Amino acid sequence: MNDSTTKDTSRRDFLATTTTLTAAAATLSSIAPVAHAAGSGTISAALVGCGGRGTGAAANALNTKDGGLKLVAMADVFDGRLQGSVGGLSKRPGYDVVKDNHFIGFDAYKKAMDLLKPGDIVILTTPPAFRWVHYTYAIEKGLNVFMEKPVTTDGPSSRRMLELNKKAQAKNLKVGVGLMSRHQRALQEAQKRITDGEIGDIVTMRGYRMAGGDLASFRSKKWPGSPSELLWQISRFHSFLWASGGCFNDYYIHIVDHLCWMKNAWPVKAQATGGRHYRGDWVDQNLDSYGVEYTFADGTKLFFDGRCMDGAEGIYSSHAHGTKGNAILSAGGDCGLPSRLFSSLDHSKPIWDSKVPNDQRDPYQNEWNDLVAAIRADKPYNEVESGVMASMTCNLGRIAAHTGKEWTMDAVLKSEVELAPGIDKWTMDSPPPVKSNAEGRYPVPEPGKVIDREYAQQAQA
Ligand SMILES: NC(=O)c1ccc[n+]([C@@H]2O[C@H](COP(=O)([O-])OP(=O)(O)OC[C@H]3O[C@@H](n4cnc5c(N)ncnc54)[C@H](O)[C@@H]3O)[C@@H](O)[C@H]2O)c1
User: Fold this and answer.
1) Which of 104, 364, 441, 443 has a CB 3.0–4.6 Å from the CB of 455, allowing a cystine?
2) For residue 29, what pLDDT is reported?
3) Is there an atom of ligand 1 within 6 Å of 148 CB?
4) DSSP per-residue string spanning 392-406
5) Does the residue 418 lie in any domain?
6) CA pair distance 301, 219, nearest whole angstrom
7) What is the pTM (predicted TM-score) of this model?
8) Which of the 8 DSSP states describes residue 290?
9) Is the minimum distance from the CB of 54 to ligand 1 under 6 angstroms?
10) What is the C-alpha separation between 82 and 192, in angstroms, rounded?
11) Dihedral (CA of 204, 188, 413, 26) sign
């Protein structure tokens, strides 16, 4: 694989940009009034995006260790999805959503948040493209936030989120991002041990998420009688790069994120490969294999392989190699137990094996317990910058694969290619940002042919 070095100038620019953003945020944070600690009173919550994860996150919220949360409002663009979520949540203690507080449509998020008071919590679990729109309003309303990953899909939305986050910090808002690996107790201890030097300096990392075809979100053509084209694309958001960043961002982000966390750094560049082999009638924009080589400022490599092919070997784990040893981080899955450190490559000399108490084994519950504890204690808590950078690392690898070209983090962060422009003004009748051709096929990446963006604007014949 290519081993060329990044131009120092672009790395310096990128580091300068992120350092300035961090410093500005820290300054704002230090002068912020302590305004929104919820103390021991009841905290109300609203759910925006009532699908699978939204329902799960709301259940985690109602189940937090500190308790005292109630769900008072729900918003979605599909009534059917909202009703499904009501079915999953309504029997839980703390569910307190009267029918008048069910809101449907592109402005439903505002109506749901309008029912909250500063210091309450809004749960943002729509497809990622809407994240900055909803975060903007949450900050305006002085709300604490739990938002799911990914949080951005391109350079412009990443820059916007980082800017927005300065306002959240100035208002002392607590913001959790659903990168639950960072709340998995075994990975937290592994990260500390690795940072303390137990396996020496990390020089290489490896991550894999290789599974069946469904992971590429293969989708059939829009069928007659389905909702508007825009709503159809939203309901299949993993298939469309504008909505989600595709299967790369949505599925690979956990392993990419926690590997970068082990290194305490983000990569400065990437080159990648990928291909579409098995498509048949499926019309989504994803590739079905990805192989990415990320490079960090000190030359460390992170290799990530993603594959979505039925019948091929399923591998789903993460690993780090240091100058004195190595680590199995996620033994299976996004952040599966156990994590282990070794001083020998054949794993015959263990250094440490994770042990996690039963009541802390669910990272989805841990992340909610941690967020609510920070709100109750009014402790600084904001995961947006790392959430944006994890999303950016996915944007970087995905764009490198889709264009067949090496990209720097800096170039992707500064790119003006926005996948869903004007999304904050959409209505039910808005046209979708990508259109299909006469055969119902959407534009797909053409590595080496279309290199300044991920796909040609016009659908291919
Ligand atoms: N952390 C994790 O392990 C994990 C797991 C699953 C999903 N997720 C993330 O959660 C998010 C949602 O994923 P999901 O699997 O729940 O998808 P989903 O399709 O089940 O749910 C998304 C919901 O949002 C609604 N929605 C779409 N646009 C909306 C808008 N503008 N306003 C209001 N509602 C809108 C949809 O109708 C749907 O009900 C994604 O970002 C996904 O990556 C994270």
Assistant:
1) 443
2) 37
3) yes
4) HHHHHHHHHHHHTS-
5) no
6) 34
7) 0.92
8) E
9) yes
10) 40
11) negative
Could you tell me if 128 and 210 lie in one domain? no
The amino acid sitting at 75 is A
Domain count, the chain: 2
Whether 149 lines ligand 1, by a CB cut-off of 6 Å, is yes
Q: How confident is the model at residue 139 (pLDDT cuts 50, 70, 90)?
A: very high
- Could you tell me the distance, in angstroms and rounded to a whole number, from the CA of residue 408 to the centre of ligand 1? 29
**Peptide bond just before 338 cis, omega within 30 deg:** yes
Angstrom distance (rounded) from CA 218 to CA 316: 20
Q: Does residue 167 sit in the same domain as residue 261?
A: no
Q: With a cut of 90, say whether residue 26 has pLDDT above it.
A: no
Residue 45 is classified by DSSP as: E
Same domain, residue pair 51 and 98: yes
Token pair listed for 379:
């402790």
Amino acid at 372: V
Name which of 342, 72, 406, 354 is nearest 189 in CA terms.
Answer: 354
Name 250's Cβ contacts closer than 8 Å, sequence gap at least 6.
128, 150, 217, 238, 244
Residue 458 predicted with pLDDT over 60 = no
Q: If pLDDT is split at 50, 70 and 90, which confidence band does 216 have?
A: low
Q: Which residue range(s) make up the domain with 78? A: 8-182+364-383
Contact 45, 122 (CB under 8 A): yes
Confirm or reject: Cβ of 109 under 6 Å from ligand 1.
Answer: yes
Confidence of residue 318 (pLDDT cuts 50, 70, 90): very high
Per-residue pLDDT, 53: 98
